[in-house]
Design brief:
Blueprint (H helix, E strand, L loop, with lengths): L4 H21 L4 H8 L3 H9 L6 H11 L3 H5 L17 E3 L5 E8 L5 E8 L4 E4 L7 E8 L2 E5 L4 E3 L4 E5 L4 E5 L3 E8 L6
Antiparallel strand pairs: 1-2, 2-3, 3-10, 4-9, 5-8, 5-10, 6-7, 6-9
Helix pairs in contact: 1-3, 2-4
Length: 192
């Protein structure tokens, strides 16, 4: 996870509080969450203390282990009724693959949705095991060329093109050329 130094600490602390809250609400010990995510108790404890620098994939594993969407770990406590979302003003997340993502919106109703802005430099190949059961994604290419979708069923996008796919199984995002995209993740019946 990367962000400006001033906000990185705040984001890490907020994520830690949220993870700890979800874990304790579900009656999980760190060991229980570790078994559900495949992450060590040490890594999970660092995340909860706000000391960690987890990648997107690590946060997705934690979200899956807690049965919540990724945005639930990142969203502000209370969203205003309306707001302007300036370009790249959301919390910046990074991954060793080279992909960067900015959470633009997270919806906490029964049908939860999240909107991310993605940077996909050429050569990026961000893979994920999938989101919660029933999750879907719509990816809109803003610039460059991208290849996205479930492993083995990817589609190539150019500016203005969009892809829809079932996102509850293995899928990936690849930068064929330096690219930017909007990624809408839809969760059916997911809790906040």
């Amino acid at each position: 996870m990367t962000s400006d130094d001033g906000t990185a600490g705040e984001l890490s602390a907020r994520i830690g509080r949220v993870v700890r809250t979800y874990r304790t609400q579900q009656g999980f010990s760190l060991g229980d969450l570790g078994r559900a995510t495949g992450l060590s108790k040490t890594i999970l404890a660092k995340i909860e203390r706000g000391d960690g620098n987890p990648s997107i994939e690590t946060l997705q594993r934690v979200a899956r282990g807690l049965s919540v969407p990724l945005g639930a770990l990142l969203a502000e406590d209370q969203a205003p009724r309306s707001r302007k979302i300036a370009a790249r003003s959301g919390d910046a997340l990074g991954d060793p693959s080279g992909m960067r993502a900015w959470l633009l919106h997270a919806e906490g109703r029964d049908h939860r949705s999240e909107l991310f802005e993605l940077d996909l430099p050429a050569g990026t190949d961000q893979r994920t095991d999938g989101h919660l059961p029933g999750a879907e994604e719509v990816v809109v290419c803003l610039a460059g060329r991208l290849r996205v979708g479930p492993v083995g069923a990817e589609v190539e996008l150019e500016p203005g093109d969009a892809a829809w796919f079932a996102a509850d199984g293995p899928h990936h995002y690849e930068g064929v050329e330096d690219g930017r995209a909007l990624d809408l993740v839809l969760y059916a019946g997911a809790r906040a």
